[in-house]
Amino acid sequence: MGDRRDEVARRLATVRDRIDQAARSCGRQPDSVTLVVVTKTFPADDVRLLADLGVREVGENRHPEAEQKALACADVPVRWHYIGQLQSNKARAVARYADVVHSIDRPKLVGALERGRREATTDGQPRPLDCLVQVSLDPPERHEHRGGLAPSQVPELAEAIVGHDLLRLRGVMGVAPLGGDPQVAFERLSDVSARLRAVVPGADWISAGMSGDLEEAIAHGATHVRVGSAILGTRPLSLIHISEPTRRH
After folding, report:
1. Is residue 58 classed exposed, middle or buried when 0-12, 13-18 and 19+ CB atoms within 10 A define those classes?
2. Which residues contact 145 (CB under 8 A, 6 or more apart)?
3. Using one digit for the tens of pLDDT, what is the confidence trace for 189-202?
4. What is the C-alpha to C-alpha distance for residues 187 and 78, in angstroms, rounded to an integer?
């Protein structure tokens, strides 16, 4: 455990330094960027270790693993971010334990998330769920294969989210396309965010950037970066679902 702690602490410090430098290089304060450590395929013990190292935001991609880990770490002071593609039949369950859902990309999910959130109570009171609209940054020909909706569809989905009492629209999320220029992709996402903020001023979160492109994301206004492998190490290939996009968080 000592070796694992030392390794993670070292990697975490390096990523935090990257975030600080990226923020300062574009005139931003480092604390304007929230680090979400993606713990998919890693054990609950790593969540506890991260919390002990000061991490307060963790991300998961798949519902069964996320649900089990959230239950196992119920006593750990972290917020759970669901960042994977969200299936309609899992949305209600995800809303029961997640604090933030990054991957809302169709109206069908909204009602299920509201129902699930109503069931997630603290002292008898439902807690609002922070919501991000996932925007596709892929070329049009790839749009049907990955999560996210076209930028032109964001206002309609945003309106649907705002219309629910227990869903709090926070902003947008995007993933730079494989083989593409992340600068171009994140500039597009920043433009979408600006248009959304003109209608919903409080929706100012931009979730963008992973282990390999967090600097580009921060340069284009990312408020949340999702980093996994740069902190926790390479995931065993046997544990990575073959249908997942091969971008590294």
Report:
1. buried
2. 138
3. 999 999 999 999 99
4. 30
